[in-house]
Amino acid sequence: MTKPHFKPYTQDQYQLPFSYEILIPEKHLVREVNRLIDNMDHRELEATYGERGPKSYDPVMMIKILVYAYAQKIYSSRQIAKAVRENIYFIWLAGGNQPDFRTINRFRAEKMQEELETIFMGIIKELVERGYIQYENYFMDGTKIEANAGKYTYLWEKNRERYTELLQQEIRKMLAEAEKITEAENKLYGDKDLEEMGEDARPFTSEELREVSRKLEEELEKRPKEKRLKEISKRIKNDSIPRLEKYEGQKEMIGADRSNCSKTDHDATFFRMKEDHMKNGQLKPGYNVQIGTENNFILHTSIHQKASDTTLLKDHIEGFERFHDRKPTNLIADAGYGSLENYKYLEEKGICAYVKYSLFHQELGKNFWKRKFDVRNWQYDRENDQFICCEGQLLKFVFRKNNRTSNHFEYQTHVYQCSECKSCPSRGECCKGKGNRSVEINWELEARKYQTKALLQSEKGIYLCGRRCAEVENVFGQLKWNSGFMRFHLRGLKKVLLEWKLLCIGHNLRRMTMLSATTE
What we know:
Elements: H1 29-38, H2 43-46, H3 59-71, H4 77-86, H5 88-94, H6 101-110, H7 112-129, E1 137-146, E2 154-156, H8 157-182, H9 185-189, H10 206-222, H11 227-254, E3 260-262, E4 269-271, E5 284-294, E6 297-304, H12 313-324, E7 330-333, H13 340-349, E8 352-355, H14 360-364, E9 379-381, E10 386-388, E11 394-404, E12 410-418, H15 427-430, E13 438-441, H16 443-456, H17 459-482, H18 493-519
Parallel strand pairs: 1-7, 7-8
Antiparallel strand pairs: 1-5, 2-3, 4-5, 5-6, 9-10, 10-11, 11-12, 12-13
Helix pairs in contact: 1-3, 3-18, 4-5, 4-6, 7-18, 8-11, 10-11
């Protein structure tokens, strides 16, 4: 019987020393990461390390590990530390060093922020040199990603205001009672106007209440037998002041431009995520992530705390100009960005706006123009500035209404109202409110829509709008679904931006390596 032949297999056999590099394929992604990071200037980061104390891991090596980890869809510091011990590509990249997960996490949170823009823009420069990016067509879109925060740790501004007002009323009542006992209003309250003690009185701050508490204690020394005064003083000091400080801290936590925040991650805002519309509609803490792409590469990204994409375009484009020192030729975006404010801003910047507006696709359909009670289908009398509805009734101009967006952009709308809706046979279908039908028209926006529609229906507009789905939507699909990044791992706006930019860097590196391998 013949013995089968196998290749030699001896685990205990000693071998000559060799470099791990010979095991790395020539066109592997890890080589691209190693080359790009080595070619960047890291002197500013290295200068942050001191000469004394225990030696630190080489920051360039730590950067390579983190960038390659995110390119390989590894986000946990523990998983990165495990890969450095076990994965041949990480071992070669780290030069045999084995930083633990605490070291990796600390470097990512404290040191990586300083080098992030250098790395991101270094890769963009490489893409421009290779001809993958021309800064011509900039495809923009946004998505909401869940924060690393509890789903039920919400803090609402309306509730805070309500509780604060109840506390202020309670304080006013106690101080009004103390006023009767002491008969020394000016001494206790200073320049506070407590004549009416009503809801319109100026609210107390915690500092002012502390001063009142101090003066009440002085009064108690003069009137030690006044038990009620003692109770009021004690309650203000031990209950009212701490609660007022708590509400003031919550106000600072929420900020001026938000209606809520998370107690776990103060920078996170509760949004209605896309998947929640199909489920129970539960709000979740998260961030609104905006990206702009060209040729499926991410040119710029920004993270915001507002839910509406409409108000974020200006900040995003200004950030793009700041980092790239230039602006794109064309901007292509969906109807979420279609507003008068954005159209005027892009026109001022000299950027051609292929930006849809709401109801753009509906207007292209036949059924839209069959809607009897839609003001867009009514006859407009330009000479008398009035509409004629489907029942022949006149909607006359009433007044101009001044409006302001959350970005402090001001615009005017014209309000038209009908005076004969009571006897109209179509009142039940046309008029939803109790009074007569009124409509609000922004004529400047309507003119912009007309121009934009012509641009979008041009040959180039049709091509670019069709291309948008294969550009920015495709990139979000790669980042969220294929890379499995559905939730941030870090907390706080700065750290979240760091983590997201690392993910974008990894995406750009993967795509660049793939294109280089197919073209060579």
